[in-house]
């Protein structure tokens, strides 16, 4: 938080140019888009102000492209248990009824597949599918990674039926899983992906990156954002990318290894910890006792985490977490779990 290099760059940008009409190109936009392409694949990037806006842009491109192929190619698939945002389109993509209740009727033509169920995936695919949205790891439902077989079969079906594979990397992207993107843990490359959150270190931003093969499938005038791509957010994003590509992944993976080691030791000591799972610094503990009660103890110890459902604790520590802080985490978690020994 408050990284001095990023803060200084943002202050300089405040004195240079904060906003201009989206009719004009700015150097910062081009620079950030170039850096995103360099760590993923050659493509074009649309910038917005949030993750939900990034997913709306991706949804619109899938629909617009599908309609050009034939009038019934408008079906969009996503996964049960997924979370893609709270605006109209992204809410329909979200595969959790609790977020959708009261906002019906939802956007039609969107269907949800059971995660990691290849038969259910195959049953939903046909020539009318325009695209599918996947999270490499479902974060909001409790840190549930896709299987490699499911990801591979999704890529095959998209190629077979000329549908786009969009990865929602809003939680998993930019180092969170120990790689630049969550999809790199799988034997696939998507057609596009969405980013937000960490891309500008807290300044509002969203990004939808699409492979050059499909860059003209949402032509100018069909989508836009007044403040998306503003010079201030772009400058912050550029500085974040510099830090990310200057050895931060090595630090993330070293810290991740230490954290997983600590949590596995805790699991061996406390029988109510039933599973440790995740990638990088995106970690969940599955418990046989109340996660809410554990969460309260964590907060008393000054640990910021959250409970998902009744029995899952989710940890998303800062990517800059140090080894010293990791040791402090170990001491605090031992104190937390000692209260529940014998439960």
Distinctive features:
343 residues; 2 domains; 13 strands; Aspartate Aminotransferase, domain 2; Aspartate Aminotransferase, domain 1; 7-stranded mixed sheet; 4-stranded antiparallel sheet; single chain
Give a nutshell description of this structure:
This protein has 343 residues and is an alpha/beta fold.
Describe this structure in words.
With 343 residues, this protein is α/β, with parallel strands linked by helices. The protein folds into 2 domains: 4-245, Type I PLP-dependent aspartate aminotransferase-like (Major domain) (Aspartate Aminotransferase, domain 2), CATH 3.40.640.10; 247-338, Aspartate Aminotransferase, domain 1 (Alpha-Beta Complex), CATH 3.90.1150.10. It has 10 helices and 13 strands. It has helices at 4-14, 27-38, 51-69, 88-93, 97-100, 118-124, 148-161, 231-269, 291-300, 323-338, and strands spanning 43-48, 75-79, 110-113, 129-134, 137-138, 144-145, 164-168, 192-195, 206-211, 273-279, 282-287, 306-308, 312-315. The strands form 3 sheets. The chain has a 7-stranded mixed sheet with strand order 1-9-8-7-4-2-3, with helices on both faces. A hairpin with a 5-residue loop joins strand 5 and strand 6 (144-145). It is globular, with a radius of gyration of 21 Å.
Element order: H for helix, E for strand: HHEHEHHEHEEEHEEEHEEHEEH
- Main beta-sheet annotation: 7 strands, mixed
- For the largest beta sheet, what order do the strands appear in spatially? 1-9-8-7-4-2-3
Low-confidence stretches: none
Q: How many DSSP-defined strands?
A: 13
Q: What structural class do the secondary elements suggest?
A: alpha/beta
Classify the helix fraction into a percent range: 40-55%
Question: Averaged pLDDT, please?
Answer: 96
State Rg: 21 Å
Number of separate helices:
10
CATH topology of the largest domain: Aspartate Aminotransferase, domain 2
CATH class of the largest domain: Alpha Beta
Integer tally of domains: 2
CATH architecture of the largest domain: 3-Layer(aba) Sandwich
Overall 3D form: globular
Our measurement of the CA-to-CA distance between the termini, rounded to an integer number of angstroms, reads: 37 Å
| CATH-defined superfamily of the largest domain | Type I PLP-dependent aspartate aminotransferase-like (Major domain)
Beta-strand percentage range: 15-25%
């Amino acid at each position: 938080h408050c990284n001095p290099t990023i803060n200084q760059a943002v202050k300089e940008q405040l004195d240079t140019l904060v906003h201009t009409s989206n009719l004009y190109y700015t150097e910062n936009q081009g620079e950030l888009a170039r850096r995103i392409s360099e760590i993923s694949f050659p493509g074009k990037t649309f910038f917005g102000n949030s993750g939900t806006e990034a997913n709306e842009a991706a949804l619109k491109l899938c629909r617009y492209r599908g309609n050009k192929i034939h009038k019934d190619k408008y079906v969009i698939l996503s996964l049960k248990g997924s979370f893609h945002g709270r605006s109209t389109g992204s809410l329909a993509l979200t595969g959790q009824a609790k977020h959708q209740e009261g906002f019906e009727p939802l956007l039609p033509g969107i269907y949800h597949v059971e995660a990691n169920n290849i038969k259910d995936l195959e049953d939903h695919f046909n020539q009318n599918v325009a695209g599918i949205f996947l999270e490499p790891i479902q974060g909001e439902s409790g840190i549930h990674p896709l299987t490699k077989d499911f990801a591979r079969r999704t890529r095959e079906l998209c190629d077979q039926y000329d549908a786009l594979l969009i990865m929602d990397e809003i939680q998993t992207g930019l180092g969170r899983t120990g790689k630049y993107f969550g999809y790199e843990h799988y034997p696939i490359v998507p057609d596009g992906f969405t980013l937000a959150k960490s891309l500008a270190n807290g300044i509002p931003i969203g990004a939808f990156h699409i492979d050059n093969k499909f860059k003209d499938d949402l032509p100018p005038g069909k989508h836009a954002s007044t403040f998306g791509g503003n010079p201030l957010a772009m400058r912050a994003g550029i500085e974040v990318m510099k830090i990310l590509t200057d050895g931060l992944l090595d630090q993330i993976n070293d810290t991740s290894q230490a954290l997983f080691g600590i949590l596995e030791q805790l699991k061996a000591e406390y029988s109510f910890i039933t599973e440790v799972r995740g990638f990088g610094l995106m970690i969940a503990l599955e418990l046989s006792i109340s996660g809410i009660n554990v969460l309260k103890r964590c907060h008393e110890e000054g640990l910021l985490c959250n409970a998902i459902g009744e029995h899952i604790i989710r940890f998303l520590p800062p990517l800059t977490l140090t080894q010293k802080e990791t040791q402090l985490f170990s001491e605090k978690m031992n104190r937390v779990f000692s209260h529940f020994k014998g439960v």
